[in-house]
Design goal:
Elements: H1 41-58, E1 63-66, H2 67-73, E2 84-88, H3 93-102, E3 107-108, E4 115-120, E5 123-128, E6 130-131, E7 134-135, H4 138-143, E8 145-149, E9 152-156, H5 159-168, H6 177-187, H7 193-200, H8 204-215, H9 226-230
Helix pairs in contact: 5-6, 5-7
C-alpha cells in the first residue's frame, strides 16, 4: 500500500523492534523445501498473503488484511501487481516481528515509521500500524470480516474501513483515482458511504473522488442545500 509519508506530525513509533534495514538483508532466493510459486504475479502475491495470514493466526495476533488484496477478497479485481498489506496494533509490532522472524521470513524496519516490511516467497509484505496516517485501532480490527482469501480464511478490513483508508491516502503527491475507482465500483453496495464522507470531509482530494463517483452514478449524489445554491 502506497502512502504519503512526508507528514512530520506522525506519532512516535511504539514498541518497534530493532530490526535490520533493507540494505543489510540478503537478496531473496528460492530455498530447499519452499514450494515453487506460479509465474502469475497475482497468484504469487496470494500465496504469500495466505502464508503470512496463517502465521499471524497461529501466533494469536490481532490483524486484518488491507490494501488491494483485501479488495480482491471482497470481490474487487483479480490483477494484483504490488504487495500485500496487513494491519496490526502498534503495540504488537515486536510480537508480530518475532512470529514472522521465527518462521524464517526476513523482517526489517524501513525509513517510514508507520510500518514494518517482510518478504515471503519473494513477495513484499507490509505490516502497517498507521493506515494513511491514522493509527490502527482495536475497533478497526474488531470490524474486520473473516472471509476466505483464496481458500484461507482470515480477518479482512471491512469494506467501509478499506475505502476510507484508500481515500485518506490521497494527497497532492499521490492521487491515483484510476486505481481506486474499480474498487469503489465493485464494493459500492457494501460500503457505508455516509461514513466515508464524514471521515473524508477534510480532504479535498477525497471530496473530488466522491464527486467523481457521483457523476459516474457509482454512488448517490449527496443532498445539497437548494436554498444555498439559489442564493449563489
Amino acid at each position: 500500500m502506497t502512502q504519503n509519508s512526508d507528514d512530520a506530525t506522525l506519532a512516535p513509533r511504539v514498541g518497534i523492534p530493532d530490526l535490520p534495514q533493507a540494505a543489510q538483508l540478503p537478496r531473496p532466493h528460492h530455498r530447499a523445501g519452499e514450494p515453487e510459486l506460479p509465474r502469475d504475479r497475482t497468484q504469487a502475491i496470494l500465496e504469500a498473503t495466505k502464508q503470512v495470514g496463517a502465521l499471524l493466526k497461529q501466533g494469536g495476533h490481532a490483524f486484518a488484511l488491507a490494501g488491494s488484496v483485501a479488495a480482491y477478497a471482497h470481490g474487487a479485481g483479480e490483477n494484483l501487481q504490488h504487495d500485500a498489506d496487513f494491519c496490526i496494533l502498534p503495540e504488537d509490532a515486536d510480537a508480530v516481528a518475532a512470529t514472522l522472524g521465527e518462521a524464517g521470513l526476513p523482517v526489517y524496519s524501513p525509513p517510514e515509521d508507520w510500518l514494518l516490511k517482510a518478504t515471503c516467497f519473494g513477495q513484499d509484505i507490509d505490516i502497517i500500524f498507521q493506515l494513511a496516517h491514522r493509527r490502527v485501532t482495536t475497533d478497526m480490527l474488531d470490524r474486520a470480516q473473516e472471509i476466505p482469501v483464496d481458500s484461507v480464511r482470515m480477518p479482512v478490513l471491512a469494506p467501509t474501513d478499506l475505502l476510507a483508508s484508500l481515500l485518506a491516502a490521497f494527497s497532492e503527491h499521490h492521487c491515483d483515482f484510476g486505481a481506486v475507482l474499480p474498487i469503489a465500483r465493485a464494493l459500492r453496495e457494501k460500503v457505508d458511504w455516509e461514513r466515508v464522507r464524514r471521515e473524508s470531509r477534510d480532504s479535498p482530494m477525497a471530496a473530488a473522488f466522491l464527486f467523481l463517483l457521483e457523476r459516474l452514478d457509482v454512488i448517490t449524489p449527496q443532498h445539497r442545500d437548494s436554498s444555498h445554491d439559489a442564493s449563489r
